[in-house]
Specification:
By secondary structure, the protein is of the alpha+beta class. The chain is built from 4 helices and 6 strands. It is about 30% helix and about 30% strand. The strands form 2 sheets. The protein has a 3-stranded antiparallel β-sheet with strand order 1-2-3, with no helix packed on it. The longest helix is centred in the middle third of the chain and has 23 residues.
Length: about 160
C-alpha cells in the first residue's frame, strides 16, 4: 500500500493525534469505488484506524452529481448566468444550484479562514509627528512542536531625525 506522501491526505478525525497532519506515514489507501465522476479512494489512518473518502471535507462530498456538472454551474454563476437558465441547461432545479453554491461558499470561507490565520496584522496609530503606537498580532503553528501559538503586542515607536 502507498503511504501518505504519495496521497497528501491528512486524517480528518479531530480526536486523532495526526489530525490534519500531512505526510506523517499514517495514511494508507485501502480500497477504491466508482462514482459518476470516476474512481475514488478510501483511506485509513494507521493511528486512529478511521476510514474516509478522498472527497471528505470537499464541496463534492456525498454528491450524486458528476463534479463536472457542479463546476459548470458554479462557473455559470460566476459569469452571472441566471439560475433558471443554469437549471434548464444542466437539467437540475434552481434549489439544487443554490445548494451547490451554498456548499462552495461554506468551503471557500473555511479555506480563507485557515489561510488567513497565519497572516500577521499590524495597526499603526499616529500620536504626533515623531511618535506612533503599533498594535500587532499573529497566529501560527510551530513546525518543531506542531502546536498553535498566538502573539500579540503593543509597541511605542519614536522616529528620530527628519525622516524620509
Amino acid at each position: 500500500m502507498r503511504k501518505p506522501k504519495d496521497w497528501g491526505q491528512p486524517c480528518p478525525n479531530s480526536d486523532c493525534s495526526h489530525y490534519r497532519l500531512i505526510n506523517r506515514g499514517n495514511m494508507s489507501a485501502i480500497s477504491t469505488y466508482l462514482t459518476q465522476s470516476g474512481k475514488r479512494r478510501i483511506f485509513r489512518c494507521g493511528k486512529c484506524e478511521g476510514t474516509f473518502s478522498e472527497t471528505r471535507d470537499t464541496v463534492f462530498f456525498a454528491l450524486r452529481t458528476p463534479e463536472e456538472k457542479v463546476m459548470m454551474a458554479l462557473k455559470m454563476l460566476l459569469v452571472k448566468v441566471a439560475l433558471s437558465d443554469i437549471g434548464f441547461v444542466l437539467g437540475v432545479t434552481e434549489e439544487t444550484v443554490l445548494a451547490w453554491l451554498g456548499s462552495a461558499a461554506k468551503k471557500a470561507h473555511e479555506i480563507n479562514t485557515h489561510l488567513l490565520r497565519d497572516l500577521p496584522v499590524t495597526e499603526a496609530l499616529p500620536v504626533n509627528h515623531h511618535t506612533s503606537v503599533k498594535l500587532y498580532g499573529s497566529t501560527g503553528v510551530s513546525t518543531r512542536t506542531e502546536s498553535d501559538f498566538d502573539a500579540v503586542g503593543i509597541l511605542l515607536q519614536y522616529r528620530w531625525g527628519g525622516g524620509l
